[in-house]
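>> received
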Amino acid sequence: MPESWFTPIDSYCERLGVGFWAEPLNAVSNAAFIAAALYALALSRRAGARDWPALWLVAVTFIVGTGSFLFHTFANRWSLLADVLPIAIFIYSYFLLAMRRYLKLGLVSAIIVTALFMAFNMSFDRLWFIALPGVTLNGSVSYIPAALALLAVGSVCLVSRGREAGRALLAAACVFILSLLFRSIDHAMCATIPTGTHFLWHGLNALVLFILMKAAIAHRPRNGVTIAQN
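>> returned
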């Protein structure tokens, strides 16, 4: 592995050195993702029939927590990939599931719409900085498309047949926007809160993923029909 992969990264208020436990709150708060994954797994097992897409989301959420823990302990380039890649996989996986399970699109149509969302997501940073140069939101710009997707798909569901799914997605969107706020103000709060606010991003984001997984499990297909459970 090239030496550059071990280049230290200091992105958050809490990190004041290069030690493994230099970000204790940011590291330990990733347990929230593990808890969300285990709770969702229990819900899935209680639901009965094996739901492979939902189980995939559970596995990815577990990996999200693990990857983020690695980044906030090792804090270098390779662990950054371990942090961001699982999050991207969850976003695209859930978007595809939403197209199929909530909006009832055919497989080909769902894949095409997901690919269009991926293209929008990957070009969003460039468009943002053209419109708002210098406004970095502490690295949170890349997550705005996911928030927009939750709001858009949730709204479409709310006015169509999937009202329960719509309410869940919009609830997740509200929590996600709040979590983005705490992620964005981390550096700005260093003087007031030495630990920063990034750990709150972890806790709230874990709640977002749990809400989304719970909705996916509740709307699992059974015998070709999507059902919803309270």
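>> The two ends are 49 Å apart (CA to CA).
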